[in-house]
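Shape matters. Shown next:

___
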Amino acid sequence: MTSRAPIASVAVLGAGIVGLSAAVAFARALPGLMVTLIDTPDDPMALVDRLPGTLSSITEFHDRIGLRERDLLAAGATHRIGTRLSDWTADGAPFVLAHGERSGTIAPGAFHQHWLNARRAGKIAGFDAFSVPAVLASADKFVHPSDDTNSPTSGFDYALRLDPRRYRDLLHALSRHIGILSVSGALASVERSPDGRVALLMLTDGRRVSADLYLDCSGPAAPLRSTLDAQWDDWQTWLPVDRLLLGTATAQAPTPTDELIAVPAGWRFTSVLRDRTLTGLSFAADQTSDSSARRILPAGKTIIPIAPGVRTEPWKHNVLALGDAAVVLDPLANANLHLAHAAILRAIDLLPGRDCALTELAEYNAQSVRQAERVRDYQAAHYLPTGRTRGAFWKRASRLPRPDSLTHTLEQFAHRGRLPFYEDESFDKDDWHGLLLGLGMMPHIADPIASATAPGTIAATLKRLAEATAALPARLPPYPAYLAQLERGQ
């Protein structure tokens, strides 16, 4: 066996949410590792530091770094069980996207195929009416999933909605608690070795920071990683949003449901925090001016340019770009922090030796880019033609070209309601089914396995399921009461 020198020190550039997450995760995973956190001035373009949305995968990250849900609730987090999309289709009817299976197995074949057969045969409740979390989200209710597999409230996932400021404070306190060294300063220059590796960082006050591995968590400008090359895969061909107007509105009663509302100029979102409501308008700069955007969203204060894309080699030599320095996406799918946390855990799980061997970095880069591309595909699928005609934004969005991987996915689904397998998916088949069927995409050919069951039997079963699922919210307390109950420890 060949002996290799292990990585003994890490320098993290940027002390926002991504930088703090990386510093804490590396320190937790590798006892004895020297971690230096360089607290640089915040990049106002770093979306991860501003957005509250997460995916259910955040639980794994918090488990790895030693944070419990009650710690996060104490830091202002709330539960997020689903997202309501309104005016997204021609008839304007809202539908809800939520994680988790729909009603389990009712007969041989996939549930969505039985629903499709019933829909072809006549009128039936919307696809989201069979999703417990979606129905709860529609009613602004939440309950933790039951451990009883026979319970209707088992088998679904939920995410958290974070207060970005308080979450960052929590991570900062944790970093101090575990002994991470933090230094304040801005990057002045980078000194490189003859082999291309970074040898040390020079800060503006003259201090020098050296490490075996450097993590660029400083935002989309990536001042450290960009010294190695300017490679970037631009996704603006497929994603129509290149500008985001963010603002805050008055506080509302806590809700586990986010809102996405299509408007002629793009789409706006609402995310309710404990003491304020975050709101935003996503639009295209060549169609809507900043002043027009502010008239559409009067609460908006801050304009953030977005250049969607991915760094095709986030890890090069001994420099790893994370968060906005590696991939930029608008907040449509709440995946920004998810991708950052997934990349951090992947880097730890695939951690090379101090030599940062090319074979190992290539595997990390391939997995990271694949995951980012599939999130891109999921976001791009939101802009499928649905018959919605109001607004130049939507007319152009419906005509956009699609990445080959998304085209493959849509062709397979449109033909027979099947989804091809892709590695490193962030959204599972239920997520894709909920989105595509919610947008009105109906497969052309019925599934033979699901079609083998008598239509009358399936129709009766679906009717009972829809009625039983619809009755669940009435048995639950309002979300503010449930949240207060949790915080009292009951």
